[in-house]
Design goal:
binds magnesium ion; globular; binds adenosine-5'-diphosphate; 9 helices
Length: 200
């Protein structure tokens, strides 16, 4: 069972991973976007950890609600509202349970992913964060294994390389978006890697 402490550690590990990989995220975004994804994610997750340290939350759902709200209010780019929606919707789905199973987390994240798809109008194969989020969430739902989910999300991010971007800034490039990994899918894979790290 996963309690509020686990979720706080997940958000802290996500912030550390995003901080470590910020230059890479920005490099990817400089190739098919506007070179701010690393800075966006770093600023957003730094605000998330600051908020959770200042005011630890009593339940898993509350941790994700606070994290999602902080992302929306601190990240200006497309990714802020999208990641904010993912975490807020998942937090809402977890309700006020004190502990949740990995399968319940997968279901909640599944609701979050559906909300992201609705907000951004994107689907799997459009070369966005959804291409890592969907396989990660699906894998977690199947076996409840965080390592398997992290691998699925990383493979999903790698699979965006040959895709043609159909949403977001990268879509302005048309065919020139082919051959590069999507920055948002890359950061989504980091969120799953952080989950694996915290569960180990
Ligand atoms: P911006 O594009 O505003 O500069 P970021 O650089 O922080 O924002 O984030 C870019 C990432 O956001 C993309 O790599 C992609 O994964 C994701 N993204 C952009 N638009 C959408 C969308 N409509 N649906 C899903 N994900 C999207
Ligand atoms: Mg950008």
């Amino acid at each position: 069972m996963l309690d509020a402490g686990f979720f706080q550690r997940w958000m802290a590990a996500a912030a550390a991973a995003v901080d470590r990989e910020a230059d890479r995220l920005t490099d990817l975004d400089s190739t098919i976007g506007d070179a701010d994804h690393g800075a966006n994610m770093r600023r957003g997750f730094a605000a998330v950890t600051a908020a959770l340290e200042a005011e630890p939350q009593p339940t898993p759902g509350a941790v994700l609600l606070v994290a999602g709200r902080r992302l929306v209010s601190t990240v200006g780019g497309a990714s802020g509202p999208l990641y904010g929606t993912l975490l807020r919707r998942a937090g809402k789905a977890l309700g006020d349970a004190a502990e949740v199973t990995p399968q319940a987390l997968a279901e909640a994240l599944g609701a979050g992913v559906a909300a992201v798809a609705q907000l951004g109008g994107a689907a799997a194969g459009d070369k966005t964060m959804l291409d890592a989020l969907e396989p990660g969430v699906d894998a977690l739902g199947r076996g409840g294994d965080f390592a398997v989910a992290a691998r699925a999300a990383a493979e999903g991010a790698a699979a965006t390389v040959p895709m043609l971007a159909r949403k977001g800034r990268a879509s302005y490039l048309g065919e020139r978006s082919v051959g590069h990994q999507d920055p948002g899918a890359t950061s989504s894979a980091l969120l799953f890697a952080a989950l694996e790290e915290v569960a180990a």
